[in-house]
UniProtKB/TrEMBL annotation:
Residues 5-114 form the VOC domain. Gene3D superfamilies: 2,3-Dihydroxybiphenyl 1,2-Dioxygenase, domain 1 (3.10.180.10). This is VOC family protein. InterPro entries: Glyas_Bleomycin-R_OHBP_Dase (IPR029068), Glyas_Fos-R_dOase_dom (IPR004360), VOC_core (IPR037523). It comes from Spectribacter hydrogenoxidans. The lineage of its organism: Bacteria, Pseudomonadati, Pseudomonadota, Gammaproteobacteria, Salinisphaerales. SUPFAM superfamilies: Glyoxalase/Bleomycin resistance protein/Dihydroxybiphenyl dioxygenase (SSF54593).
């Protein structure tokens, strides 16, 4: 057996409406649920990002990493939406271009793209 990709990441959120707005601002497309639901699912490529309403979620649980086709465009989209990434996109020694951002509940997200080999 070989694990090929992440199918879904589920995050606990305190405010579904705010969380949905955040992820929609970044370009995630709603699959199920929405701002008034207790459970929401967004498309994330061939995988899914799930949000589950919890009265007092813990923060700082870790990081979800999403590969995207253009890291700089996602970063620019976040800035245009008034969001605050932790830093501008950068190339890492492990071979990815990436940046991090936290949602309103403190979940850290990384948007990354493998660097092409030269």
């Amino acid at each position: 057996m070989r694990i090929e990709s992440v199918n879904a990441v589920t995050l606990f959120v305190a405010d579904m409406e705010a969380a949905c707005g955040f992820y929609e601002s970044l370009g995630f497309v709603l699959k199920f649920g929405g701002p008034a639901a207790r459970f929401t699912s967004f498309h994330a490529g061939d995988s899914f990002l799930n949000l589950s309403l919890a009265p007092a979620p813990e923060t700082g649980w870790g990081r979800a990493i999403f590969h995207v086709d253009d890291v700089d465009t996602v970063h620019a989209t976040a800035l245009e939406a008034g969001l605050e990434p932790a830093f501008p996109p950068r190339d890492a020694h492990w071979g990815e271009r990436y940046f991090h951002i936290r949602d309103a509940d403190g979940h850290e997200l990384s948007f990354a793209r493998p660097l092409s080999s030269k």
